[in-house]
Design brief:
By secondary structure, this protein is mainly beta. The chain has 3 domains: 7-44, no CATH class; 50-162, Sandwich (Immunoglobulin-like); 179-277, Sandwich (Immunoglobulin-like). Helix content is 1%, strand content 52%. The chain is built from 1 helix and 21 strands. The protein has one helix at residues 128-131; strands at residues 19-27, 36-44, 57-59, 62-64, 68-75, 81-89, 95-101, 106-109, 113-114, 119-126, 135-145, 152-162, 179-181, 185-187, 196-205, 211-218, 223-226, 231-232, 237-245, 251-261, 268-277. The chain has a 5-stranded antiparallel sheet with strand order 3-4-6-10-8, with no helix packed on it. A hairpin with a 6-residue loop joins β11 (135-145) and β12. It starts with 18 loop residues before the first strand and ends with a strand.
């Protein structure tokens, strides 16, 4: 009415809308054809959740439960492995993801922003077939953000690549390939320091189908294992040539190497090599 006052009530729901906001209201009246524009603005901040202390490894404003992301066991002959990891924004400011640096066989998917004091889950997809390497894999992934405190956040990503085989039915253990290793624990004795110690390890295909040796990996550069023959017919034998370089080493040494094969029962077999270097 003439000479009276009134009000317009506006309500803003901040859920899912972190950070600065600016909204407008257009009020149409019979006074003018031009609407009256009202602006509502502010900054949405959150309360720190009670479980925030679970995220102990912090890089800038982002925190994770661990300093590394472990994908566990993945299979080279199966669809890409998927794991989910939590990233927590331990601040009252929105953190935006601008870029991901990772190898082409490691894909990272997830929301582009972390709201204040909120957890966001990133999806990591590891394509072992594209990596095409057996055994323990260690890679680095970096998240490039607008976090002024630490824009680039680097994380170690681990995985163990193996080949998947369906369970073998009881009574059919020798129906397929079967790797028989002469020794799973080798003692190279007490060589003098500086010596190159050699040893031949006999292996055999005790199954009824062809056996393929996918890879042989040593856990030390001091020990090499040569594989002269990677395909063994049923009943066929071969030799793995082991060479241990004692230079720069002393006293008790215990190393190992892993044999990856198409034996569906034991596709991953570990051989321990021990010696005592004198002098």
């Amino acid at each position: 009415m003439t000479g009276k006052q009134g009000f317009i009530e506006a309500r803003f729901d901040p859920r899912g809308r972190p950070g600065y906001f600016s909204k407008t209201l257009s009020v149409l009246t019979d006074v003018s054809a031009t609407p009256l524009v009202l602006e509502v603005k502010g900054d949405v901040v959150g309360d720190k959740p009670k479980n925030a202390d679970r995220y102990t490894y912090r890089q800038g404003r982002l925190a994770t439960k661990n300093s590394s992301l472990n994908l566990g066991r993945v299979y080279i002959n199966q669809p890409p492995a998927v794991q989910f990891f939590e990233f927590y924004n331990d601040s009252d400011t929105v953190v935006s993801l601008q870029q991901v640096e990772a190898p082409d066989y490691l894909r990272v998917d997830g929301p582009a922003q972390w709201a204040p004091y909120e957890t966001t889950v990133l999806k990591l997809t590891f394509d072992a077939r594209k990596k095409n390497q057996f055994g323990f894999i260690s890679e680095n992934m970096a998240l490039i953000t607008d976090d002024r405190e630490q824009p680039r956040k680097s994380y170690s990503v681990y995985a163990t690549v193996e080949e998947y085989f369906a369970p073998v039915k009881p009574g059919f253990e020798t129906a397929g390939p079967l790797l028989s290793v002469e020794e799973n624990s080798i003692d190279l004795g007490r060589p003098r320091a500086g010596a190159l110690v050699q040893h031949n390890l006999r292996i055999r295909n005790a199954g009824k189908k062809e056996l393929l040796l996918r890879d042989v990996q040593s856990n030390c550069t001091c020990m090499t294992v040569r594989v002269p023959q990677k395909a063994l017919k049923p009943g066929e034998e071969s030799i793995l040539a082991i060479e241990f370089d004692t230079r720069g080493r002393s006293a008790t040494q215990q190393k190992s190497f892993i044999i990856y094969s198409t034996d569906p029962i034991n596709p991953v077999q570990r051989v321990v090599v021990s010696l005592y270097i004198e002098g």
